[in-house]
Specification:
There is one protein chain. The chain has about 120 residues and is an all-beta fold. It is about 0% helix and about 45% strand. It has no helices and eleven strands. It has strands at about 5, 10, 20-25, 35-40, 45-50, 55-60, 65-70, 75-80, 90-95, 110, 115. The strands form two sheets. Strands 2, 4, 5, 6, 9, 10 and 11 form a seven-stranded mixed β-sheet that branches. The protein has a four-stranded antiparallel β-sheet with strand order 1-3-8-7, with no helix packed on it. Strand 4 (about 35-40) and strand 5 (about 45-50) form a beta hairpin.
């Protein structure tokens, strides 16, 4: 069972930036699809962005042009760079490793990390 540990969350003012990191245990990190999701209390978890094992990436419309997903395969680490943050980006963010190289299916989850955008 893979372990995913997120870090980098916190409180930031509107217009600010944060970078989340997710370190994954195990081998073959580079071949798996990796994603970031977020969840607001009382709402379903939503996909923010996903990066396939073939380096294809997709983004939710709400974050396009502001967020960037990338990975450091040598360090088994997935990143989410978030810029021009808005109050509506406030949520718990979850790292997710898929079961294969695609962005399909559910896979394994990190424990989640809080991001709060507020003045």
């Amino acid at each position: 069972q893979v372990q995913l540990v997120e870090s980098g969350g916190g409180l930031v003012q509107p217009g600010g930036s944060l970078k989340l990191a997710c370190v994954a245990s195990g081998n073959l990190f580079s071949v798996y699809g990796m994603a970031w999701y977020r969840q607001i209390p009382g709402k379903t978890r939503e996909l923010v962005t996903c990066n396939t094992g073939n380096a294809l990436t997709n983004y939710a419309d709400s974050v396009k042009g502001r967020f960037r997903i990338y990975r450091d395969n040598a360090r088994n680490t997935l990143y989410l760079e978030m810029n021009n943050l808005k109050p509506e980006d406030t949520a718990v963010y979850f790292c997710n490793r898929k079961t294969d190289s695609t962005c399909l299916g559910e896979g394994s989850w990190g424990q989640g990390i809080q991001v709060t955008v507020s003045s």
